[in-house]
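User:
Can I borrow your eye for a moment on a structure tokenisation matter? Would you put together a sequence-and-structure record for a protein of your own picking? Please set it down just below, with no commentary around it:
AI:
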Amino acid sequence: MTFHNLGYLNLLWVALAFVGFIGWLELRSRGALSSFLSPTMQRRLTAQASVTRMVLRLVFIFLALAAGIVALARPQVPGETEIVDARTPSADVMFLLDTSRSMLAEDTAPNRLVRAKAEIGQMLARLEGQRVGIVAFAGRASLVCPLTPDHSFFTTVLNTIDTRSAGRGGTKIGDAMKIAVRGFPKATNGAKLIVLITDGDDQDPYSEEAAKKAAAAGVKVIAIGLGSEQGSTITITDPHSGAKQTLEHDGQPVISKLNADQLKKIATATEGVYIPAGTSALDLDSIVDSYIKPLIAEASAKATRRVPAELFQGLVALAIFLLLIALWIGSGAGDRKLR
């Protein structure tokens, strides 16, 4: 048996501490009551539960919490092998979106980042039925949306991405590809694609090495290069006043150029494709039909995948059952038997 979210099991310590704290409060209240009432008077004047019933209730509360936490960890056992029909091709598509400040260059209207987000949104409509995820990267990379079939959730996350999403300046494509590759499930033979959207202004010396590792994992990269190869200044617009300011370094305007050669090397290393979008409008239908769908169909035609059997449903039912028992004991319904 394996756990899909193994880290959730650490919450068992929190549950144990919580139940221990409740037990301490109950013992403290008993001690306070016994300081001015004798045991005989306590039984006559209060409906206080017996110690046995209190301990049993706490045990069942802990077991209910433990079952719920294990359910969150999603225990799985190997299931049946699923053959993916070539007529219904399946793929996992991870978008890598450059959120560095160079993407604020306005050589594409209104700027590179806004245009990239709009194109991802349009491309999403052509990927119906596929799982999609997104990694935002600049000087560091962050998996802001794991692979999901829920395109509405993906769109919500996409709309929140800006130049602060990665948390550090610069551009490191290699780090983003490593995180994207780790985000793909290992137990699948279906198509695994990375759609990299950037100006290619890469400061990571290990990007080509990361591309080779992606290729070894069966991942292909479709690199879409945004921006001008001649270079463009980076204009930052104040969201409140609308005032524009040119980004400078040492008193000189920062010029951002499309690094097409680097993106070609990354795509070639994974047997993918490089698409020079430049500053012109993209023919998204042509990109999806000519590049993405053939790669999906090629992998899906011979794909088999092991679908794990989920066990969390039974654990959720068990947690509810144990909680009901704890409530029954706490209500005093079984007090006569437990005294």
DSSP finds eleven helices and 17 strands in the chain. The longest strand covers residues 91-98.
